[in-house]
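S., here's the first fold you wanted:
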Amino acid sequence: MEKLTAADVARMTGGRLVHGDALTECVGADVDSRRIKKDWIFFAVKGPQNDGHGFIDSAVANGASVIVIERPYGALSLSPEAEKAAFIEVISSERALGALALAYRKRFECPFVGVTGSVGKTTTKEMIYAVLSARYDVLKSEGNFNSETGLPLSLLNMDSKKGAAVLEMGMDAAGEIDYLTRIARPGVAVITNIGVSHIEALGSRKNILKAKLEIENGLGADGTMVLNADDDMLYPASGTLSHPVILYGIENKAAAYRAENVRRLEDGTAFRVVTPYGSFDAKISAFGNHNVLNALAAVVAGYLCGLETDEIIKGLASYKNEKMRQSIFSFEGVTIMEDCYNASPSSMKAAFDVMSERPESPKVALLGDMLELGPDSPKYHFDVGAAAAKVFDAVICYGENGKYISDGANSVKKGVSRHYADKNAAVIDVIDSMKRGGAVLFKASRGMRAEDCLAAFKEGWKK
C-alpha cells in the first residue's frame, strides 16, 4: 500500500479521528493482529469467533500505527503503548475496510481482472496472473483472500509500480459478489462455471448463477464479461447481459476462443488455441480439460489487457500449480495426486478424468466429504462414487457423507470401495491397497483436511 495518513484513512472510510495525530502514517493494513507490521492499519473487526477490539494491544505491539474501531474509543481498555496510535471510529470496521479499498482502487487506471465461479476460480486467477506477468508487474489475490475482508486487503497491496491486477471473488451468499465487484471495479470479469458449491445456502444452480453474475455490477461502461461457453448455465445467460461477452470453450463451437487437439504430455497438457484472429499452440503444466478451459480464460484476459500472442504463450508456459491443487508428484515408488484444497462434484470428476489418463497401476482414491451441498448431498456423493468406480481399483472413503461415495462406487463395481468413520483407518487401507508403480488420489473438501491423510500415508508408506 502506498503511504496514507490517519487523516486520509478517516476521510476515505467516512470515519472520525477520535484520538492521536492526524499525520500518523500507514503503509499497509490487516484485520489479523498477528499479521500486522510496522506502520500498518489494524481494522478491529467483530467476527463470529473473535472481536478484533480485544487484540488492539497486540496489533500495536506488532507495529500498528492506526486503529479503526467500531466501539467508542472511551470504552476501550488499552495499554499505554496502544494509546500512542491514532484511532478512527466508524460504524462498521469491516465496511470501513471496503470503503478504504474502493477509494484506494480509484487511484489506479491499469487493467483489473475479476474472477469468480463455482470451481476453478483460484487456478484461473493464477493462470491469468502468469499470463499478465509476461508483460506487467501484477497484483493478485493471495491464497484464499477472496472474501469481504480478503479482497479489500488484497487490493490495498496495489501500488504505482504494478501494471495490472487480478482479483478472485468468492461468496457464501447472494449479494457478496455484488459488494466485492463494486470495490474491485474490474475491466474484465471472468466466470469459470456454475456448479453446486454453496447450493445449501442458495437453494439452486439458478440462484448460484444469479449470484455469480453479480460480478457484472462492478464493470465500467467499457468492461467485458468472459464466460465459459461449455457451462450449461453460463452459455444461455450470455445473451442476457448488459456488457459485451466473450465466450471460450472446448466443446461449444459458438465460443470465439476454443481449444482443439488437446494432448496429454508427461509434464502437462498441450493444445491449439483457435481465436477470431488466428490460431497458435500452447502448453500448460497442468492436466485435464478443466485446466485447458482455465487457460482459455487466461488467453482472453491477456488479449483484453493488451498482450501479444507470444507473451500469452510464454505466460501460460510459466504457470505452476498452487499447493494442494492437483499437484502430481512421485514419492517412494508411487505417484501421488494431491488435490486437497477443496472438492465439489465437478472438481471430483475432473480429478478422476486426470487420473484415468495416468498409466500407473493400481489406482487408488482416498475421498472425503464434499461440504455445503444441501439436502441433495447424499445423491451428489453417490454419483461421485459411481464415477470413481470406473477409474480406480480401490475407492477408500471417510467422513459422514463418505459412506454415500462408497455406496455409489460399490453399485458400479461391487467390493471396490470401503468406508471408514476414522480417517486414520482409511489411510491404513490405502497403504494396504497400494503397490509400487501405482497412483493414489487424495481429495475432499477443505474442512475434511485430506492433507493430513496424505501426510499419514507418506509416513506409513515409508515404513
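And the second, which I think is the more interesting of the pair:
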Amino acid sequence: MKLLSLFIVLILTTNSFAQVTKVGSDTLYDIAGWNVEWLGNTSNGPTNETLQYNNVKTVLTNTDMDVWGLAEVCDATLFSNLLTDIPTYSGTLSTFSQTQKTALLWKKNMFTLISYANINDASQSDFYNAFAGRYPLEVVLATKDSLTKDTLYFYTIHLKANSGSADQASYDRRKNAADYLKTWLEKNRAGKKILVLGDWNDDVDQSVVKIGNYLVTPFEQFKSDTAKYFFPSLRLSLNNETSYPNYNPPNMIDHQMTSRQLSDSFYVKNSSGVMKQLKTQISSFLNNTSDHYPVYAQYNLKRYTKPENNDTIIPIDTTHTGTNSFEAVSNLSVYPNPTVGKLYLMNLPNDIEKIQLTSIIGDVVEIINVEPNTNIIQIPERLANGIYMLTCKTKNKSYRNRIVLNR
C-alpha cells in the first residue's frame, strides 16, 4: 500500500509539472523577473523545500524564458544545483551578505557573459540602507546571434519591503534607492540598453503606501523621465493586474523597466504579462512555490536601423565593460571537466600572469601565480566540490570557463 501511495504521488507530481506551459517565443527575446520566496531557506517561505525547488525548476524549464532575474535565492549550493539541473542556463548569484540574494540566469546558446558585479555607489552614504543591504546585481551579456549582436545590461533588484500599509519609512528607502540607481545609471551606463528586473516592493502607477491617500509612486523619477526610461509593466498596473495576489488590494510590486535605447525600437508592444496561470498549473502554487507570480516582457532585437540603399544590419551597441573583455569560452579548453583536481589547460597564450578560481556566488576562492607556458594546475584539496569559474588573466584580457570539481 505504501509503494502504491508513493507511485500515485509521483504520478500527480509529474502531471502537475507537465502542466506548466511554454510562455517564451522562439523568435523573440523573453525576459522575466520572479521572487522565488526564500528559496533554500528552511526557516521561512514554503515548508517543503524539495517540492519548492522542483516546482521552481519546472517553471524555469517549461516556460522557456531566455533570461530570468530572481529575488530571494537563499542558498548558494542550491543555486549551483539549479544550474546543473537546468543545463541550458548559465547564471550568477549576488555576493552581498543578506540572506535573500538576487540572481540572473540566461540561456547559454543566446548570450555570452561579459561581466557581473554588485553595484555600490560609495559617494552615497545611505546607499546600503536604501537598498536594505541588497545591492543591485549588474550582469552584462552579449547576444550571440551574428545578425543582432548587441550588449544588454541587466540589473536584478529587491527593494525594501513594507511592514504595513502606511509604512512611510520603507517608502522613503525605496524612493532613495530609485534616486541612487538612476544617478548611477546615468553617470555610468548612459546610452546603454538597460533592463531592470525584480521585486520593487511597490507599484508604478501609484504607491501601495496609503497615508490618507495613496502616495505617488516612489519610482516617479523613472516614470516621469519618459525620454530615458519605460516600464513595460506599467500597463499591467493600469489594468489592475497583480504579481503579489496575497496583497489587498491587489497591486503590481514586481516590475520590469528598460532604457529608451531598448524599448523604443525593440520592445514588443503590449507583450508584458504576469504568469498567473501558474496558480492553476501547479497545485497550491502560492503556498508551496512562491507568493509572487513571474512578470515578463518580450523584445525583438532584429529591429535594427538600416542605412539607406543598404540591407546590412547595423549593431547598435557592442561595447564591453570593465578593464578586461572576456573571450568566448571556446578559447579556454579544460580537461577533464568534471575534474578530481588536476586540470589541463589548452589553447592559451604564453603571457598568462594569473589563474583565478571564483565560486558560484562570485567569491574569489583561489589565486594561482603561474610560470610561463603553464598548462597544468592542481586545485587545492581544501576546496569543496561544486561549480567554479576558472579565469586565466593576461595584462589585457581574461579567458574563462566553468569547471565542475567532483572528487
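Why I say that: The longest helix spans residues 168-188. Residues 1-17, 304-330 have pLDDT under 50 and may be disordered.

Talk tomorrow,
H.
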